Amino acid sequence: MTAQTDAPLLRVCGLKTWFHTFGGVVKAVDGVSFDLSPGEILGIVGESGGGKSMVGFSIMGLIDKPGRIEAGEIIFDGRNLVSLDDNAMQAVRGRQIAMIFQDPMTALNPLYTIGNQLEEMLTLHTDLGPQARRERCIEMLAEVGIPQPEARLGAYPHQFSGGMRQRVVIAIAMIAGPRLLIADEPTTALDVTIQAQLLRLMKAQVEQRRTALIMITHDLAAVSQMADRIVVLYCGRVVEIGASAALIAGPRHPYTRGLLDSIPANHQGRSRLPQIPGTVPDIRKLPPGCSFAPRCPRAAERCRSEIPELTAAPAGGAFACHFPLEAAP
Amino acid sequence: MFGYLIKRFIQMIFVLWIVSVLVFVMMSFTGDPTYMMVPLDATDEQIEQARRILGLDQSHLVQYWRFLTNLLQGDFGRSFVFRQPALQLIMERLPATLEIVFLAMIMALVVAIPLGVYAGAYPQRAGSRALMAGSLVGISLPGFWLGMVLIFIFAVKLQMFPSSGRGPTEVIWGMRLSFLSWEGFRHLILPAVTLSIGTLAILMRIIRAEMMEVLRQDYIKFARAKGAANRFVLFKHGLKNALIPLITVFGLMLGDLIAFATLTETIFAWPGIGKLLVDSIYRGDRPVIVVYLMFVAFLFVVVNFLVDVAYALIDPRIKVT
Predict the structure, then answer these.
(1) Cross-chain residue pair B241–A169, CB shorter than 8 Å
(2) pTM score, two decimals?
């Protein structure tokens, strides 16, 4: 793959995003590192509450109080975004890095037309005149598959279905030509029948422009078909990272295995779907050792006392486990 | 839309009819106005004659029917005191009241919107906390006390503004207005400030609460993710959404201010309809009170109608039907 030979577009290094609440410090993101080449598609996978979304919002610089980036670097195109002030970040948001939200029902302002909200991006980030802006908006809506785009410019969000709204959100994200797109559970709120369509649309959009994409999702099945590489997060930490095909074929971390096993399609004919026992622990009271130890079938004494470091696997990729699964033959 | 207007119009007629019944019943219980009309040394015969002229010798039902038919013909009776049509009296004084009410409303909005947005956007800041505490004071201050304090400070001590009266007026479209000349405007300021403080404080608190609610929404975060500046997000995406619940309150407050500018007008000897009402109650000038009540009811109905229309204008999800 050519993408990996390029200099990285984004390098996240030891990122820690913590929330200081009354109940204690919530370490939503606790030492996450990965990098991303131009045009690459990276999947970030994990269960709900695993801190996946907070990685995305940290990159965007949109962490709400009481959250804060405690440590780490986010190097985008040679600049550390963590150290940028709000004005400088505004020029990056939307123009350089765009984001797609989980719920298209609430991401659009109900009081403004689609055209207005789409055009706003061009007003903010380009010097185009009104006529050129309008034409570009119509083009973009057509590109994301909205029928009669010219007539739809004047429509309000409530006049669209969920899938159509998410198409509009994608159009808004892509119209200023960002170099990185962060999609936070972009299809979770939609009907299963539309999910595949929208994933294809997003893939086509980023490939056409060579935009890098971070797909944040809990759906390992969906992301495995799209992503070049996958990062598996558990309780704010990276437990495994690797090229998609290799990770799916031979996961080294028991958590990744558990996620793969619980995909229905992989178990046709079996009476009962395997599941990972237990639930994600309270992130404020993590066990002292490996966070996954209480749910892990392979856990030993060492796992309960010592946090495993992320170690590179000989076959590429890396995992954080004391007793990893066998590498695929 | 046309059907909606018809429906609202029928509703309006119905409400006004109910009010006319209430007003009539209330007036019938407040005593016999005949004694206000006749000289102190009138004979029984003269009193009886006056009652006949006023129609008070007939049954309440007949009296009400006459009252209603007169209303429908636009005849609200003549003031016992001024010997003028009561409606004309109200209409002459209405511009004076509208002037201070509108100025008060504008002052309240101009101050409350930015302060409310600020306090809602940054609720943790010391400035926001001070505003919240200040607004409580503003709501709690009785208007008459505030009016007198303002007179004491700005009229008596500093001599910046006149303490009472309306000052010079100019006639425009048949209305006597004072805000057109500087001297007249100076007379407007203290009453308008007095009237606006309570409204301002309430509006600000509502805007703050609504902003805090709206700013939690996804579309606000999405607007930030688009790279919009903070102020732009607050005012374009936040404020408009926060305004929707505010319109209802604003409509009711506007009606309230017009109807109950009475105290302020009394303190500042402002010749508006509020002062006319108080004077008429003292003099037992029944026709004026009746017109006043009917007129205020009419105002409320109209303002509420405008509020509904404003909803539909600001929120595309609402259709007036």
Answers:
(1) no
(2) 0.82
